[in-house]
Amino acid sequence: MPSPSDVRFVKSHEWARREGGLVVVGISAYAVEQLNKEIVYVEPPQKGRTLKAGDVLGVVEAVKAASDIYAPVSGRVAESNEALAQNPSLVAEDPYGAGWIAKIEPSDPSEWENLLSPEDYDSFTASEEPH
Amino acid sequence: MTNPATRDIAPKSLPTIFECSVPGRKGHSLPPLPADADALVTEAIPKRFLRREPAALPEVGELDVVRHYTRLSSRTMCVDTNFYPLGSCTMKYNPKVNETVAGLEGFAGAHPEESEESLQGILKIYHDVSQALSRLTGLAGCSLQPAAGAHGEFTALLVAKAWFDDRGETGRCEVIIPDTAHGTNPASALRCGLRAVEIKSDARGRIDLGQLKSKLGPSTACVMITNPNTLGLFEDQMHEAAALIHEAGALVYLDGANFNAIVGRVRPADFGADLMHINVHKTFSIPHGGGGPGAGPICVRDFLAPYLPSPWVVFKDGRYMLERDCPKSIGKVRSFFGNVNNIVRTAAYLRQLGAGGLREVSGHAVLNANYLLSLLAGTYDVPYGIRCMHEFVINATRQKNLGVKAMDIAKKLLDYGFHPPTTYFPLIVPEALMIEPTETESKETLEAFAAAMLEIARLAETDAARVTAAPETTPVTRMDELAAARQPVLAWPKA
Questions:
Q1: Residue A70: helix, strand or coil by DSSP?
Q2: What is the dihedral sign for C-alpha A64, B177, B439, B454?
Q3: B397 vs A64: CB contact, 8 Å cut-off?
């Protein structure tokens, strides 16, 4: 299934969506699929933390493995998804919606242009899949 | 007719021991309590520590207990009942003679507070095993104190840190670790107050020297290398890597988890290792602890030896004694001498095999893995070629695209009477199945396992649902692992 058109991606499988002045961040449906959709725990970032693009933003833990989540853009964490503490499965059920992980107040809006378009991300994941 | 020898003697579903409870039933007879028992208890134990209501223990007879646990144990898949090719875990057979020796009264009945005079036998075993491990690794210093492999990693990193601190090199706070490493490596580094820095493997599944070079610097304390690595590949540029690491003033740490593939043939010191831990359950056949007592000896170069945990055993004036005057030692990492019984088992194994026997152990471990790999390679994708050391990794993406994941293949193997291999590790191989047959398995067992794997691959193509529903024949069938992780029931009675 093609990725939604209103988000952009990084190769470490996080997505970003502009919403007002903030950037909403989550992990892609492809990443969820790689984790067999069995997500047992999500550790979102502390509100107020300052991150650089590529820094570890949080952790997602599945039955299969635990993985770091990386910040796609630099900035301050304005909000983190508290619903995930009770219900981490939201990330698997609705990765681009209710399963968002954090909202970042970007410190360098120009970084947005470095992110992958949905088309580029989809061809990247297709090439990552071994044959 | 079912063969009585193979018939499952227990019903499909077993009650818990609590459900077997009948009020008032007992399996013991204790002498009657003295009349003043209550007073004696309150005198001896402060009131706040006393139980307010009786413990909810099951009330059962001795025979109930024996049958319950014997039935439970008959359902356990273990290396004594089934082929157990759990990659990286090295589920090798534990020779029973080890148990006989460890159970001898002189060893099993010894007390650590006895005098050195009455512990001469145990001290000699410690001295001899240390020397044997030093000979096998080429590293002069040895400590048998750490209680498990990961504890050995932690202890060895503390030794390295103490050495650097002693030299005034306090800025060395980073440990470089390849992305194929065991998860214990970064964890040990962190516990020592060091920072883990990851390097990616190259396309051949080995250390990328360019990456290594770019991360090495004045803040590097150690580089932790597993050789052979967790892809089952020998690090063929080990000398070059070690030279780069030493040039940067850092130490080469060898994760000895896969020492069983090279023991008796390669001395890690000869390829540049400065310090290492040894998982004696993998290389020297003690039982896997399952969280119980293990042993994780460490070996280090002579210049690091003064920093090893104290006390250590020395042989002086015709007797073995504990050297307690160790001014540079990092101190104790374990009470008394560590887990003595496992060192005794190690000694028994070493004495049974000798140097020549150990050479055969590693040779057969590698031969068995290569034979199994050759039987599976046409049907399953093997990303790093058709030659391996003691283990190899399958990429089951081809099967996943048919709707059968690595986890499904693993579960289906249970229906054929095989314990599944390791799944989803190492992390750099998608849909990984990591297979390690070990040296003690026969050609027939390897062929039977391969036949099951080929049958599962065929089912994936023709009848995927038979695989994704597995296991079907085990006492407990497919588990809901997500629910088990999210809503675990850990206590009885259920709330």
A1: strand
A2: positive
A3: no
Spatial distance between the Cα atoms of B143 and B156, rounded to a whole number of angstroms: 9
Report d(CA A23, CA A77) in Å as an integer: 10
* Residue B57 shares a structural domain with residue B179: no
Asked if residue B124 lies in contact with residue B110, where contact means CB atoms within 8 angstroms, the answer is no
**Identity of the residue in A38, A65, A89 whose CB atom sits nearest the CB atom of B481:** A38
* pLDDT digits 0-9 by tens, A22-56: 999 999 999 999 888 889 999 999 999 999 999 99
For the entire predicted model, the pTM comes to 0.89
In Å, how far are B120, B141, B388 from B295, measured between CA atoms? Answer: 21, 17, 27
Report yes or no on B5 lying in a domain: no
DSSP-derived letter for residue B286 is P
**A32 close to A96: Cβ distance less than 8 angstroms:** no
User: How many CB atoms within 10 Å of residue B325?
Assistant: 7
Q: What's the angle, vertex CA B280, arms to CA B274 and CA B284, rounded to 5?
A: 110
Rg (CA), chain B: 26
**Residue B123 host element (H or E):** helix B120-137
Closest CA to B138 of B44, B264, B30: B264
How many structural domains comprise chain A?
Answer: 1
State how far the alpha carbon of B300 is from the alpha carbons of B45, B125, B249, in Å: 48, 19, 16
Domain end: B40, B75, B110, which one?
Answer: B75
Are B58 and B17 in contact by the 8 Å Cβ rule? The answer is yes
Domain final position from B352, B375, B391: B352
Dist. CA B43–CA B37, nearest whole Å: 10
Strands B174-178, B220-226: pairing kind: parallel
What confidence score (pLDDT) does residue B11 get?
58
* Closest-CA residue of chain B to A39: B482
Kindly state the average pLDDT of the residues A106-128: 93
Q: Does B190 touch chain A (CB under 8 A)?
A: no
Contacts of B397 in chain A (CB under 8 A): 129-130
- Does any domain span residue B454? yes
Rounded to an integer, what distance in angstroms lies between the CA atom of residue B97 and that of residue B439? 18
Q: Which residues, in sequence order, are CB contacts of B57 under 8 Å at separation 6+?
A: none
Considering the domain architecture, whether residues B19 and B127 belong to the same structural domain is answered as: no
| ipTM confidence | 0.76
Instruction: Please list every residue in chain A whose beta carbon sits closer than 8 Å to the beta carbon of residue B486.
Output: 40, 88-89
> Of B159, B194, B193, B160, nearest to B175 (Cα)?
B194
